Each structure stands twice: as C-alpha cells, then as structure tokens.
Amino acid sequence: MKVRAGGFISQCPQVGTSSAPLSLWGAGLLLQFAANLRVPPCVTGLAWLEIWIVTRPRTMSRICVYSGSSFGVSPEYAAVAAAFGTACARRDLTIVYGGGSVGLMGALADAALAAGGEVIGVIPRAMIAEERAHKSLTELIPVETMHERKQRMAQLANAFVALPGGIGTLEEVIEIFTWLQLGLHLKPVGLLNARGFYDLLVQFLAHMRDEQFLTSKHHSMLAVSTDAEALLDRLTSTMHVHVPKPVSHATTNAA
Question: pTM score > 0.85 for this model?
C-alpha cells in the first residue's frame, strides 16, 4: 500500500484505490501501524511523505484459472483440469474462469461443480451468442470485450493459475505475470506444468533472466509445479512484496 501524506492515497494493489486526502497526522498513524506489524516502511521524498506498507495477505478464496478451450492431444490434460477443479472445490476455492463449456475449460468447471464447488464464468456476449458459455455455473458474468473479460477476472480473483492451453492461455498468464512484475497487483501467479507442458516456457523465462531482460527476483515470483496440491499450497502461502522494475538508460561512448 502506497500512501502520500498531504496529497491523495494512490493506487494500492491489495486494497484498491481511494481519493481521500491524508493528513500528516494520518500518516503518523500509518507509521505506527507499520511498526506494530514489524514491517519497516520506506519513507522517501522531500515534498511528500511516501509510506510503503506490506499488509497481511487476504485469504485466498477465489482463484482465476486460465486453460484451453481444446482438449489437447492427450486425455491426461482433461484429467488434470478435472482434478484441479476438484482440488479447488475441496479447499472451498471459488474458480473464476473464462466461462466456456468446451475443452479443458469445461472439464475444469464440470469437476468443480460436481465436487460442490462454486464457479464464476466471465465471457464476452459474442461467445454467449455462439453458445460457447457454460449453462450450469454458479454465476455467469457477460461482458462486451476480451479486455473487459480479463480485467474482471483479475479483479475477482486472489490468485492466478494457468493449466495447459493455447495462445490465449499463454497471453493471459504472461500478462498477469507482467502486472505482478510492474506492481499493479501483488497476487500469486502459477503454472500447473502437467506432462511437462510448460517446460519450454519455463526454459525461455530462465533465458530471459540469464540475458538480463527479467530480474532474478521477478523470475522467482512465478510458481511452477507439476502437482496441483503442491501448487495450491504454495499460492496460499505466498505474500509478494513489490519489487520495482529496474530502469536502464542507454549510454553513448565519447568519440
């Protein structure tokens, strides 16, 4: 949470955004609050007092799951999706997903619902018109665009997991991982690496780190596991702290 005394409360990834003015007295209370949590705040700036407070994470009650609308070459992918849906239901984790009834998306939702879990789907109206929407969800939220779909899913969830899928799944999980890198949210992000599906992506991200296009700290923020229960355990126990992305300035050699 970032607070600027004497100005306005700016965007806070964990607790939202407020435009209420904050006095120096209020900032002092926040400093005391930070001290009680034994979290050392970082105070910077001359004209403004900036306070960074790492708050305790919210209970993970909703998990956004990205997955393919196809079944893939192996029946094992559908089994993995179904098992993940069942595991979430057993933990009372509400699944937030793209609202589809086909492929791994459908297998995930069907299994979670059959196990007594809740499933929220977010889907563009155009896809509802094409009869792609799941008709038995706990809640189906229609939206106008794909951008609105992703934003709404991100707002509803406390964590994010990608199951095997296509380029849409890849784009979704990389975007939400990018938002984590930029500090736009501090929610855990993970890959369920079933059948080694994400091995090449994991190798490529390590290559980015080695070539210094991705910092080691940001690289380590992505949770990867071949086991659903182990992945959920890690996501539940994760509390990210914002790590600013380094800014590199080009240098020129003197002639």
Answer: no
